[in-house]
Specification:
With 286 residues, the chain is α/β, with parallel strands linked by helices. It has 2 domains: 171 residues, 3-Layer(aba) Sandwich (Aspartate Aminotransferase, domain 2), CATH 3.40.640; 112 residues, Aspartate Aminotransferase, domain 1 (Alpha-Beta Complex). The protein is built from 9 helices and 9 strands. A hairpin with a 2-residue loop joins strand 7 and strand 8. Helix 7 runs parallel beside helix 9.
Length: 286
């Protein structure tokens, strides 16, 4: 439930890992520990719906986590690289009714162009730009700033794309996400029906327009998942090796969604035919 962090790859010093604590996400025992330790932490960082485990969508856990961190004076940071703008115009924060102190976003905010973004309360963001001040008078930024820079920070092309994306989202309103979410849910329902008919112990799940095989509800090993990516390539669908799903967008019409459904379902049935997924009574995999 609670472990000390270790460097994930060479180049990350052990001294960095010593300052990090890992907790089971969505586990009530994690909240019990944080109630005792949050005052010693600078921040708690969560991916509100984890890209590697999207079937876990712990609304009450997040609400309690917000209350604990707020009481302890500890920052709550949401990694919204996947959930931002996808489930709702306000991301996972709006969907779950939980306001983080800081949130991070990625290329979805730039319409697919390389872009990353940090958003948060003004008292925190003041440490990036110094805070509010007026041009042409004696005022000056009053907050002590940290170092924040990058070669492509505020790149004009990415900012233009971000502005266009924001205007499109504002114009479309929540109906854009609502429609995509319903379409994705319907795709997942079809895929699960096909898996059940084939007797395969594989279940799909979704969060907004993101869909994926739910590993905690399926009996499929990493080798079969990697081979599925290759089979999908032969059908014109590209996933990173080991990925278990993808994202629908407004560019996907009925024909494309049918193709996605057939490619995933046929690929999984092919793997079962090769003995890499064992057909079984799905009830035994729960």
């Amino acid at each position: 439930m609670f472990t000390r962090a270790t460097p994930a790859v060479p180049g990350i010093p052990q001294s960095v890992a010593r300052d990090v604590r890992l907790f089971d996400y969505g586990n009530p025992r994690t909240l019990d520990v944080l109630k005792r330790q949050a005052h010693r932490l600078a921040a708690v960082v969560v991916e509100p719906v984890q890209s590697r485990c999207p079937e876990i969508q712990p609304a009450e856990f997040l609400k309690e986590l917000r209350a604990i961190t707020e009481k302890a004076g500890c920052l709550l940071i949401f990694d919204e690289m996947i959930t931002g703008f996808r489930i709702h115009p306000g991301g996972a924060q709006a969907h779950f009714g939980v306001e983080a102190d800081l949130a991070t976003y990625a290329k979805i905010a730039g319409g697919g162009l390389p872009l990353s973004m940090v958003a948060g309360r003004h008292g925190l963001m003041d440490h990036i730009d110094g805070g509010a001040w007026s041009f042409g008078d004696a005022s000056a930024p009053s907050a002590k700033t940290t170092f924040f820079a990058g070669t492509y920070c505020r790149h004009p092309l990415a900012l233009a794309a971000a502005r266009a994306t924001a205007l499109k989202l504002i114009e479309a309103g929540p109906a854009l996400q609502d429609g995509l979410n319903a379409t994705t849910s319907a795709l997942v329902t079809r895929l699960n029906a096909r898996m059940a008919a084939a007797g395969l112990p594989v279940e799909f799940t979704c969060f907004g327009s993101f869909f994926s095989i739910a590993l905690t509800r399926s009996a499929i090993d990493a080798r079969a998942v990697s081979l599925l990516s290759i089979l999908l390539l032969t059908r014109g669908i590209h996933l990173r090796g080991g990925d278990r799903g993808g994202f629908l967008s407004t560019a996907h019409g009925a024909a494309e969604i049918d193709h996605i459904h057939d490619a995933f379902a046929d690929g999984l049935e092919t793997l079962a035919g090769l003995g890499l997924i064992r057909p079984t009574d799905r009830r035994t995999t729960r």
